[in-house]
Amino acid sequence: MSKYARDNINAMQGYTSGEQPQDPDTIKLNTNENPYPPSPEVTKVLQGLNADSLRTYPQPTADPLRDALAQLHGLDRDNVVVTNGGDEALRLAITTFVEPGCGFGMAQPSYSLYSVLADIQDAPVTRIPLDDDWQHPTDFAARLNQAGVQLTCLVNPHAPSGTLYQEPVLSQIAQALEGVLLIDEAYADFVAPSQAYNSTTLLRTFDNVLILRTFSKGYGLAGLRLGYLLGSSDLIAPILEKTRDSYNIDHISQALGLAAILDQEYAANTWAQVRQDRQSLQNNLSQLGLLSSPSESNFLLVQIPSMTKLNAQALYEELKRRNILVRYFDHPGLHDKLRITVGTSAQNEKLVDELTDLLT
To answer: Which CA distances in Å does 273 have to 11, 189, 205, 266, 277?
Structure first.
């Protein structure tokens, strides 16, 4: 403990990220990256960048990128703020809308960074357990209101299950909540078009809804750290004008992000390939007795039956020895499950082959 740090910082636990392998031959299926590279247009822009442009500060609010994002979502520039990854968007939302000592709300289980950022803000966390089918209990909003929660983060599709909550469910929660609802759509690009999912319709009805998007997953740019928030101008303005760091998006990130957004055809093709690979992987795992709930993300939450030769933790460890990383969570309700990122077809086949060898 540091004698200079705030008491809540000394008392809290920091965020633990997924393992980052040193061996380039390791198959990395543990941190939900896109298995396909970013658009070739991103490569062109990167190769054409002039180092002299780094001598001056970037455009302060990333306006060209904000304009492109606004057009993509059918909104105005004032409805968009660009952030240094989705994680900065979360931090900014908590800093802006949660007073120190006041409540933060989330489902349980969910993205573990939420509670870490709340702890930094010294905001007590209210966790509402999900039902067995990953749905929110009927009194979800009421319990958060009773706890005085000022901001609730809801990841959709849900992590770690991949369950998609449609707009009517989100609408009911937003209407009932007394605070702000942030819908974390880190994985929304992988939702099947047949679902006709479009949460931006909520922004026309509710003034307490923020939507988070990221370039890390759908656009294959996890190493760039670029994300954004959508919301009413009343929610976006204090973030953009007050709590956001000055020049928070560098010149290179703005240029590459714009190139990625403008090549929607390429991005959509990678999303379709991930959906196809997701279904094939789910089918192949089910033949081994490893079932998973329907997922609209780029990962599967796989149940490891109690009668298998190895439990979930042992499987994770054995796969790691074979240079395949998946995610095991030592948390209540998840001890018997593995979260597996959808890789390329070849990576998925290798995973299934190794699991077959381990379990049969």
So the answer is: 44, 12, 34, 11, 6
